[in-house]
Write a structure and sequence with these properties.
The structure is a single chain. This protein is an alpha+beta fold. It folds into two domains: about 10-70, Orthogonal Bundle (Arc Repressor Mutant, subunit A), CATH 1.10.10; about 80-255, Beta-Lactamase (2-Layer Sandwich), CATH 3.30.450. Helices cover about 45% and strands about 20% of the residues. The strands form two sheets. Strands 5-4-8-7-6 form a five-stranded antiparallel β-sheet, sandwiched between helices. The chain has a three-stranded antiparallel β-sheet with strand order 1-3-2. Helix 2 packs across helix 3 and helix 5 packs antiparallel against helix 10. The longest helix has 18 residues, at about 235-255. It is elongated. It starts with 11 loop residues before the first helix and ends with a helix.
Length: about 260
């Protein structure tokens, strides 16, 4: 049973629903939490917990996996991301991106999901004389499946948002590994999620991308792009380590 000192709210059902969301946000892994455990930990009657969860599911803030377990829904991630898509980014958010570009001395891009599509939020460049045209590989109008950040966003998106992405963008086809069926896409995204990053190597360019996560909730993705002739295999881990450090910093700053 979870207790905290609380003032009685004007709308008690809303307070209870928000407390259930908070509990779901602390559920370990991706399997969520069973109804019985939620009711016990919140000290609610089972019917009360079920009605609260049913309302959250209808509104998209929770998901019932069909086996009586509940997890956070896609609307939670949308709320977290929307703050940075409808207003200019704060200097606190931009600073880690600029610092990453300076550290790696390459072009960096920050992206997120909004309204079922990939959005570019910001860019930063290094000081190399020869720079890649990152907008060509990871621009606002780059096809979702062509961009490494797009693949990462899809891999870490909740199932409901992935369905929306596929509905809007279609299957990758020639834009990524000739993937032409949903099972093939699911398998490719599962591999990418397990790997934890996406990469692409062409004759003219090399690209890497990592997710920005708040627990299991997707906030965005960071991509880096450099000319193909500067790519070295032993650069991968140092680049990824720096990108992940920046992703962790951005996740902490995202809500501020």
């Amino acid at each position: 049973m979870e207790h905290r000192p609380r003032q009685r709210a004007p709308v008690e059902s809303l307070r209870k629903g928000l407390e259930v969301l908070e509990l779901l946000s602390r559920a370990p892994g991706e399997n969520g939490m069973p109804l019985a455990e939620i009711a016990t930990r919140m000290d609610y009657k089972r019917t009360t917990a079920h009605n609260l969860l049913k309302t959250l599911v209808i509104c998209g803030f929770a998901v019932n996996d069909g086996e009586g377990r509940y997890r956070l829904g896609s609307e939670v991630g949308r709320l977290l991301r929307n703050r940075n898509t409808v207003r200019p980014l704060s200097p606190e958010i931009l600073q880690p991106l600029v610092q990453l570009a300076a550290e790696l001395n390459e072009s960096v891009v920050l992206t997120t999901l909004a309204e079922g599509a990939r959005r570019v939020l910001a860019r930063a460049t290094g000081q190399q004389i020869v720079q890649i045209d990152a907008d060509r590989f990871d621009g606002e109008h780059t096809l979702m499946w062509e961009a490494v950040t797009g693949r990462v966003l899809a891999a870490f998106a909740p199932p409901e948002e992935l369905d929306e992405l596929v509905s809007n963008e279609g299957l990758p086809g020639a834009n990524w590994q000739e993937i032409a069926t949903r099972p093939a896409l699911t398998a490719a995204l599962r591999r990418l999620r397990k790997q934890g990053y996406a990469e692409s190597h062409e004759r003219t360019a090399a690209s890497l991308a990592v997710p920005i996560l708040d627990g299991d909730t997707l906030l965005g993705a960071i991509g880096i792009h450099l000319p193909g002739f500067r790519w070295q295999e032993d650069s991968r881990e140092p680049f990824l380590n720096a990108m992940r450090r920046t992703a962790h910093r951005l996740a902490r700053l995202w809500h501020e």
